[in-house]
Write a structure and sequence with these properties.
alpha+beta; five-stranded antiparallel β-sheet; three-stranded antiparallel β-sheet; 2 helices
């Protein structure tokens, strides 16, 4: 009986972890360039259930020990593109490619191509981080008012009044998420990136799918919770009946 409680408890823990992942996916359904996460599970080994017999312990069945997280993964599929008409918005057309950004913690990477001109005249993100060029340096465009128009073309060239002032550093590699829509890890420059000017990449989270999954998980969680409560009550009754003898 205690093994059944342990298995149900492990199931609840796994479901709680997956619920956290699903909730985070839903919270970022409108985050530019966000990639949804998932968890892969593996069954723990089965164990025999034995009871005392005249010739020693007898196997009367088996019971699973629940599931455990085997892997956490990120789906790299490109999200749908949204036309904005902003000349400094740009979307990456291939998965596993990123823009290089300068942060206080060092170079980080993002797929959020919503860029702007920072107060110091450098091209940067909406959060105030500077974009890096192919040489690893910030891209200076000039302060707003010093030029007529700044744009980014499909090859990543930054043009100010039709004059190239820099080339966006686009990298690729198996990177890992670190929060705030940033990634880190070993990355290699992309020689000929493919970009969509005037567009942004939406999240690849399917809100309907995630809501259905969350509803299913909550029902499973409640079922396991009731199973634990029932087995706990049965165990209590057994202990009381033994104590009365």
């Amino acid at each position: 009986m205690t093994r059944g409680i342990e298995a149900a408890t492990r199931g609840m823990k796994s479901q709680a972890l997956l619920l956290d992942v699903v909730a985070n996916n839903l919270a970022n359904v409108n985050t530019t360039g966000f990639k949804r996460d998932g968890l892969a599970f593996a069954d723990l080994m089965m164990k025999d259930v034995t009871l005392p017999g005249p010739n020693g312990p007898e196997v009367v069945g088996s019971i699973g020990q629940g599931a455990q997280v085997a892997d956490e993964y990120t789906v790299a599929d490109v999200g749908s593109l949204v036309a904005t008409g902003n000349p400094l918005d740009v979307a990456l057309l291939k998965p596993a490619q990123y823009f290089a950004v300068e942060t206080p913690q060092g170079t980080r990477y993002t797929r959020d191509g919503s860029f702007t001109i920072l107060p110091d005249g450098n091209l940067g993100t909406r959060q105030g981080h500077k974009l890096l060029d192919a040489t690893g340096r910030p891209i200076f465009t000039g302060r707003p008012g010093d030029f007529q128009r700044a744009t980014i073309d499909s090859s990543g060239r930054v043009l100010v009044d039709e004059v190239e002032v820099g080339l966006l550093q686009v990298v690729e590699g198996a990177l890992r998420k670190i929060g705030d829509n940033f990634w880190e890890g070993n990355a290699q420059p992309v020689a000929t990136p493919e970009l969509a000017p005037g567009q942004l990449e939406g999240s690849n989270v399917d809100a309907v799918r995630e809501m259905v999954l969350m509803t299913s998980l909550m029902r499973q969680f409640e079922a396991n919770q009731k199973a634990v409560q029932t087995q706990d009550e049965l165990l209590g009754q057994l202990i009381r009946s033994l104590a009365e003898r």
